[in-house]
Amino acid sequence: MLTVFGSIAYDTIRTPTKVVRNALGGAATYAAISASFFVKPGLIGVVGQDFPKSYQNILDRFVDTRGVVHAKGKTFRYDGSYDSTLSLRTTNKTELNVLGDFKPVVPEEYRKSEFVYLANNDPVQNTRIIKEFDNVKFSMCDTIDFWISSKRNDVIKMMGSVDSVVINDEEAKLLTKTHNLIKAAKKIMEWGTKYVIIKKGEHGSLLFYEDTIFPSPAFSMEDIVDPTGAGDSFAGGMIGYLSSKNSTKISTIREAAVYGNIMGSFAVEKYGVYGITGLKRPDIKKRFGRYKKMVHF
Amino acid sequence: MLTVFGSIAYDTIRTPTKVVRNALGGAATYAAISASFFVKPGLIGVVGQDFPKSYQNILDRFVDTRGVVHAKGKTFRYDGSYDSTLSLRTTNKTELNVLGDFKPVVPEEYRKSEFVYLANNDPVQNTRIIKEFDNVKFSMCDTIDFWISSKRNDVIKMMGSVDSVVINDEEAKLLTKTHNLIKAAKKIMEWGTKYVIIKKGEHGSLLFYEDTIFPSPAFSMEDIVDPTGAGDSFAGGMIGYLSSKNSTKISTIREAAVYGNIMGSFAVEKYGVYGITGLKRPDIKKRFGRYKKMVHF
């Protein structure tokens, strides 16, 4: 089984061509829905009383929501704007709301999960919650600049407590204080994790383990609509695929990184979660096949 | 046969750790030496009376220099500084010297070349000189921001007169006025060239033809010493490999793009041309094999 822990949000997304208000969002939402095309993931998170039935229905359609707590107050809100290239995002506002006091607990039914994804949560919380699982075969965490700047030592500790770290290129540089991504990955591995996956947006990803690097270009996209959630969809697709294979063989992990890229490429094709919620499994398989042909030489 | 036309220079390279003055450089120097590991290229260029015997010896060791004119005056000089990440270069000074009045002529012995590489020269000169070849099977040109800013229409005309364009990502965006590299490549192809190769530095390259994209990640490097000439070595390696196969089959062109990446990765390992002049053919073959294993999934 796979468990995903992280934020469920109302997102306001501003691109040069459109503003979408109060869309279903959040790192865990994207990751869990993305993973759901490979396995049915359990989701741990919190929503407020304002969380509408329609969004609850979307979650229920894709994931096991027994771990989603309905708390008094308003759902976490995020508001961000993209620049004209859709590659730089500025945060306009974050309202923690119910997320602020959330004390996540792993439901009994999720404790035996072999695969666990900890999204970009408070690193102290991630480090604590991973210990509540009894049977972890492969754990993965993400982080963001906010935690790197405010709780760097806790981020480092968290990274030593999981099997793999998935992180953006710019955040990997910020965290490790180096410009070279290979040096950055090596440093993160020194902190105790076995695998580092650096996400490079339109340039794909780099998977590091031992002395090996597996670069995987992005599935090239001419029309990007909304990059929100691409990284979370990457992580969800990657660990979802691994979980479906119930394997941590390196050849499977390499394939999983490619599935991560594929899921990220779907995520950016529409606003909000609609790039991935409209998918069928054969769409993913087909794009994986096209990808394989694309990179062949 | 392959002919390379472009600049031969004295380079002053300033990195945060070292300054190298009056090193042998120039786009055509890098491209021709890189290509020489696949075929013996003919070189068209000009040097001044100050060009030392030692540099002439390096050129003679790798290329056919019957097309190199020794003119009255000083050799072309370039002086540039890299930032701390080695990814941004600022031009401190350019002295055209003998390059200013150079009227390139294709030597009789080179006219039958099936493969022609026109480096980042004046686009008007490139468009004129390609017509002096009788038997071209595959021509390729590069350009730089200087020509895009000063002679954009001539750059566009040049691109329509060759089979393929190799260009940096930033320059492709500047030239086509778009941020998306797929849109940029399509626009360049509309101007009449069949293949576009966009070089993305540490992120590798994208080869475009018809409706197809072949992304090829860079051979990942932990220690980059000097990026000077990496793009020219890429282009030289690519067209050198094609010329050695005497083929323009698409499968060969894809392999050639990988060889381009490989040659670029060697170029950055040492200052100046020494990253490639010290190579032996088996080194290249070996790295190509490692690359193939690296990207496999």
From TrEMBL, chains A, B:
PROSITE patterns: PFKB_KINASES_2. The keyword Metal-binding does not apply. SUPFAM superfamilies: Ribokinase-like (SSF53613). This is PfkB domain protein. Pfam families: PfkB. Residues 4-274 form the Carbohydrate kinase PfkB domain. It comes from the Archaea. GO terms for molecular function: kinase activity. Gene3D superfamilies: 3.40.1190.20. PANTHER family: PROTEIN MAK32. Keywords: Kinase, Transferase.
